[in-house]
Amino acid sequence: MQGREQSDRQWVIDVVNGNLKLNREEVAEEWTHRCIYKIPSYLNDFHKGSFTPRLVSLGPLHHGSPRLLPMGYHKRRALLHFLDRSKHSADGYLKALQAVEWKLRACYEGPDELPGMESPEFLNMMLLDGCFLHELHRTAIDEDTSGYADDDPVFGRNRAYFFRQQDSRPGAVGKPNPVAGLADFVGPLGGTLPGGRGA
Q1: What angle do CA 152, 153, 158 make, to 5 degrees?
Q2: Pfam families in the record, alphabetically (predicted)?
Q3: C-alpha torsion angle, residues 143, 146, 152, 154 (rounded to 10)
Q4: Predicted model pTM
Q5: Residue 68 to residue 3: CA distance in whole angstroms
């Protein structure tokens, strides 16, 4: 507390002395890319568990949570299906993601506070999560289940009700539409997404 009071006091002194001024461009730039925000603690406390994923983690905030690890198997399957259809290597997609890594990290409020993930781990996670969401979208919204067994619990025609009605809708998981993000790195590799999105 004492350190914070000192910091606040110094900040006010700097403003009074004219050492700090509002830079509108800098302020606007800070919020330009942010689209994924932390849930305020007062909301989290009021709605215990409502904002904690119960089935699958997407992005770095809950990555590695033991109770969500079983879905990793389905994420890996989604990646293999995606790569098989695209005819490109995972390495090509990882390089394309690496070119926009700063932009991906900037989407998160307080990117410096993200769980300590080195670049390779972050990019691998983004590729897995992005392909998983893409496959959910492709099989649920576009109803193209080619490559999956009808009884596949996640991607098949007879998938679990939860996936059909909940997570498969764009934006239903509180994230930007994953297909829009995937188009950024599918396009440069000459691929297209369902509905003609991509290059």
Answers
A1: 75
A2: DUF247 (PF03140)
A3: -50
A4: 0.69
A5: 37
CA distance 34 to 29: 10
pLDDT at 131: 92
Q: Decide: 136 and 194 in contact? Cβ < 8 Å.
A: no
Q: Helix, strand or coil for residue 126?
A: helix
Listed in order, strand segments (DSSP E) in 30-180 are none
Alpha-carbon span 195 to 68, nearest angstrom: 31
Rounded distance between C-alpha atoms, residue 101 and residue 184, angstroms: 12
Where do we find the tokens 């090509």? 92
Cα–Cα distance for residue pair 13/45, rounded to 1 Å? 35
Q: What is the C-alpha separation between 151 and 148, in angstroms, rounded? A: 8
φ, ψ at 160 (rounded to 5°): -55, 140
Residue 106 in tokens: 């900037």
